[in-house]
C-alpha cells in the first residue's frame, strides 16, 4: 500500500482544488501534486528523481 498524506485545504482554495481535480481526470490529484512538487524542487535548483531511480549524486565515484 502506498504511503498516505492528508492535505487540508483552506476555505479560500476549495474551488481551486475542485478545478484541479476536474482537470486531473483519471490521472488524479496524487500524480498532479507529484508533478507540481518535482517542478517546485527543480525550480529551486535541486534534482527531483522519480521513485526507484538513484540520484545522480549517490555514487559520484562510479561515473568513470
Cα separation of the termini:
38 Å
Query: Tell me about the biggest sheet?
Result: none
Coarse structural class: mainly alpha
Mean model confidence by pLDDT:
82
Poorly predicted runs are none
Our Rg estimate from Cα atoms comes to: 16 Å
Number of helices: 2
Dominant shape: globular
What is the helix/strand order? HH
Tally of strands: 0
Helix content: 40-55%
Strand composition percent: under 5%
Distinctive features:
globular; mainly alpha; 64 residues
Quick structural summary:
42% of the residues lie in helices and 0% in strands.
Polypeptide structure, described:
- The chain has 64 residues and is mainly α.
- The chain is 42% helix and 0% strand.
- The protein is globular, with a radius of gyration of 16 Å.
- The protein has helices spanning 14-24, 28-43.
Helices and strands in order, then pairings?
Layout: H1 14-24, H2 28-43
Amino acid at each position: 500500500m502506498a504511503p498516505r498524506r492528508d492535505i487540508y485545504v483552506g476555505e479560500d482554495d476549495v474551488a481551486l482544488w475542485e478545478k484541479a481535480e476536474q482537470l486531473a481526470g483519471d490521472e488524479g490529484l496524487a500524480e498532479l501534486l507529484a508533478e507540481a512538487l518535482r517542478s517546485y524542487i527543480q525550480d529551486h535548483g535541486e534534482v527531483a528523481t522519480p521513485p526507484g531511480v538513484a540520484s545522480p549524486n549517490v555514487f559520484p565515484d562510479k561515473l568513470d
